[in-house]
Amino acid sequence: AAPPPQAAAPAAARPPAPSPELNELRERYNLVSIRASTAKSGVESMQQQMSRQGLNLRADIREANTRMDYMLQESMASIRAGDVEGGKRNLQMAERALEQVEKFLGR
Which of 47, 54, 56, 100 sits in a 20 to 30 Å window from 22, CA-based? Predict the structure, then answer.
């Protein structure tokens, strides 16, 4: 005997709507990301000016700039995974690095 016909596959289930907390974190990430982009441009400009004079950017500022980028990437990865606490923690670390860069730039 032939096997019974299989029922049509159910329509793809919609993923649950993001929590208000996750939406708020995403908005905060966007604001920090914009500030970081502006700061990064400022650091690059300063680095170019200094290199023309034969000088190097301070190591702590280079490290803060790198840490800021990395922690923003980690924060976005957490947000995409729905990990609100991880996203917040990573975003806070990115903001600390950003504040160090902004202070150096006089902002």
Answer: 100
User: What is the rounded distance in angstroms from the CA atom of residue 87 to the CA atom of residue 81?
Assistant: 9
Using CA atoms, how far residue 68 sits from 1, 4, 32, 75, in Å, is 65, 59, 10, 10
Closest-CA residue to 92 (of 77, 75, 69, 70): 75
Burial class (CB in 10 A: 0-12, 13-18, 19+), 98: buried
Q: How confident is the model at residue 7 (pLDDT cuts 50, 70, 90)?
A: low
Reported pTM: 0.80
How big is the CA angle at 59 (ends 53 and 74), to the nearest 5 degrees?
125
| CA dist., res. 77 & res. 86, Å (int) | 9
